[in-house]
Automatic annotation (TrEMBL):
<keyword id="KW-0597">Phosphoprotein</keyword>
<protein>
    <submittedName>
        <fullName>Transcriptional regulator</fullName>
    </submittedName>
</protein>
<feature type="DNA-binding region" description="OmpR/PhoB-type">
    <location>
        <begin position="129"/>
        <end position="228"/>
    </location>
</feature>
<dbReference type="InterPro" id="IPR001789">
    <property type="entry name" value="Sig_transdc_resp-reg_receiver"/>
</dbReference>
<dbReference type="Pfam" id="PF00486">
    <property type="entry name" value="Trans_reg_C"/>
</dbReference>
<feature type="modified residue" description="4-aspartylphosphate">
    <location>
        <position position="52"/>
    </location>
</feature>
<dbReference type="Pfam" id="PF00072">
    <property type="entry name" value="Response_reg"/>
</dbReference>
<dbReference type="InterPro" id="IPR011006">
    <property type="entry name" value="CheY-like_superfamily"/>
</dbReference>
<dbReference type="InterPro" id="IPR001867">
    <property type="entry name" value="OmpR/PhoB-type_DNA-bd"/>
</dbReference>
<keyword id="KW-0804">Transcription</keyword>
<dbReference type="GO" id="GO:0032993">
    <property type="term" value="C:protein-DNA complex"/>
</dbReference>
<keyword id="KW-0238">DNA-binding</keyword>
<keyword id="KW-0805">Transcription regulation</keyword>
<dbReference type="InterPro" id="IPR039420">
    <property type="entry name" value="WalR-like"/>
</dbReference>
<dbReference type="GO" id="GO:0000156">
    <property type="term" value="F:phosphorelay response regulator activity"/>
</dbReference>
<dbReference type="GO" id="GO:0000976">
    <property type="term" value="F:transcription cis-regulatory region binding"/>
</dbReference>
<feature type="domain" description="Response regulatory">
    <location>
        <begin position="3"/>
        <end position="116"/>
    </location>
</feature>
Length: 228
């Protein structure tokens, strides 16, 4: 399910946008001020952002500029203004589209769908076969390199093997026994606690909050699953 972040301080407009998006099968979240918008946008695994130009504790231009330093997901600016200079400035800071209030909910949904589809096409076209890109995590299988928000993360050989195995099988649960046999081999010395240790080390390196992982999650009583 695609996740949309609505950055909007007008509660009635934000709830209307959310309701129409949810009717169309999206998951939508609302944040009302600039103070929390950037943090939530970067840590919430969103696929698209609806960004109001004028919000408390910041403005859409500043937020767009900050987001574009670390993410390339579609950003649609939403505003009551209809000045060409604002549009030009917004596009210059990396906004993908500009929609002016009042607008029809159907138009908003149509634009959201169009930009999500366009982004998916660009990702499929530009990403080499040996590359995986998941919510700021970039893995190059050929060079065995890992980056989080463009910062290279150094993993041991076993850590990389474990991460890539889970990443190429998203949303599948693997037991510790299965992972130990697959990564270390049946004849290896050790036990399933080795898997636990390596998962913990990987989380410490790639997760913003290892205690609340966004990539490798624990399925209690069953094993581990990479969130696709």
């Amino acid at each position: 399910m695609k996740r949309i972040l609505i950055i909007e301080d007008d509660q009635s407009i934000a709830e209307l946008e959310r309701d129409y998006l949810e009717i169309e099968g999206f998951e939508a979240s609302i944040v009302e001020d600039g103070k929390h918008a950037v943090e939530m946008a970067l840590n919430g695994n969103f696929h698209l952002i609806l960004l109001d130009l004028m919000i408390p504790n910041g403005n859409g231009f500043e937020i767009c500029k900050k987001l574009r330093k670390t993410t390339d997901i579609p950003i649609l600016m939403v505003t009551a203004k209809n000045e060409d200079i604002d549009k030009i400035r917004g596009f210059g800071l990396g906004a993908d589209d500009y929609i002016v209030k009042p607008f029809s909910p159907s138009e908003l949904v149509a634009r959201v769908k169009a930009h999500l589809a366009r982004f998916e096409r660009l990702i499929r076209k530009s990403a080499p076969v040996d590359d995986l890109q998941i919510r700021g995590l970039y893995i190059n299988k050929a060079s065995r390199q890992v980056f989080v928000h463009e910062k290279e993360i150094v993993l041991t050989a076993r850590e990389f093997d474990l991460l890539i195995f889970l990443a190429i099988h998203p949303n599948q649960v693997f037991s510790k026994e299965h992972l130990f046999e697959r990564i270390w081999g049946l004849d290896s010395m050790g036990d399933t606690s080795t898997v636990t240790v390596h998962v913990r080390k990987i989380r410490e390196k790639i997760e913003a909050d290892p205690g609340n992982p966004m990539y490798i999650e624990t399925v209690w009583g069953a094993g581990y699953r990479f969130k696709g």
